[in-house]
Structure formats: C-alpha cells, structure tokens
Amino acid sequence: MVDQARARRLAKRISSIVATAIEYEVKDPRLRFVTITDAKVTGDLREATVYYTVMGENLDADPDYEGAAIGLEKAKGVLRSKVGAGTGVKFTPTLAFVLDRVPDAARQMEELLAKARAADDEVAKVAATARPAGDADPYKVERDADE
Q: Are 102 and 52 in contact (CB under 8 A)?
C-alpha cells in the first residue's frame, strides 16, 4: 500500500541530503552553481527524481546546463550512498536528475506581465486625455420650444 505522506517526507529528506552533499562533499567544479529545488519519490520508495536548477557565474553569463548534468550523472553513485546513509530506509532509492524549468518559466511570465503592465499604462495615458469624436451624447435630441 502506498503511503504518500511517507513518500513526501522521504523526498524532502532526499533533497536536503543531496543539496548538502553537493555543496560540501562533492568536489566537482561543474556543480558549483547547481541548486536542488525539489524531489519526488515513487509510492514504493524505489525511485527518486531530484529537480535542480543551474545559475550562471554572474547575471550576464549563461548557465552550463550540460556540464551540470554530466557532473550530477558522475556523482550519482556518491549521492545515492549519502542518501542511503542519511535516510536509513531498507532499499535506497535510485536517483534521477531532471532540470527544473520552473524558474525560467516564472521569469518569462514576469517579463510578459511587465510588458502587459506597460501597455496598460500607455492605454490609460491615452484614455485620460481622450475626448469623444462627436458630441458627448450622440443620442441627445434637442427639442423645439414649441413642442
């Protein structure tokens, strides 16, 4: 029977162990700018998917996604050993690393929202000084005094 609460707790523990091991114990320079964002464990606790992002050395530099993937693949055995020692489960889950695209999608959404806000501000400026092309009330009919 699948215990989802246990799987979530184990996933959280795995992400913590992997992040700490990458930061302090794995000496691969390709993993310097890798950040672990999330982990998911299957219901049978046999497989774990670890999500990560890669930052550039500075704001202008592009992240080295390929180098980080190679570094994580190379360190997979050491990281699995750390997970086994740190969790104490009967069967240490296999690790699969997946690049997390959520931060990139969030950045793109923020850029789109900024463009939409700028367009809304421009429309608001034009609307503030706009006047009707004809009369203010084109349906207004003037009546003669005789009627």
A: no
Q: How far, CA to CA in Å, does 107 sit from each of 50, 103, 119?
A: 21, 6, 19
CA distances 139 to 26, 42, 131, 135, Å, are 78, 68, 17, 9
Q: What is the band of 146 on the pLDDT scale with cuts at 50, 70, 90?
A: low
For the entire predicted model, the pTM comes to 0.71
DSSP type of residue 28 = -
For residue range 75-104, list pLDDT tens digits in order: 999 999 999 999 988 899 999 999 988 877
Asked if residues 73 and 31 have their Cβ atoms less than 8 Å apart, the reply is no
What CA–CA distances, in Å, run from 51 to 96, 114, 125, 127?
9, 28, 44, 47
Specify whether the CB–CB gap between 22 and 42 falls below 8 A: no
Q: Where are the beta strands (DSSP E) in 27-69?
A: 34-41, 47-54
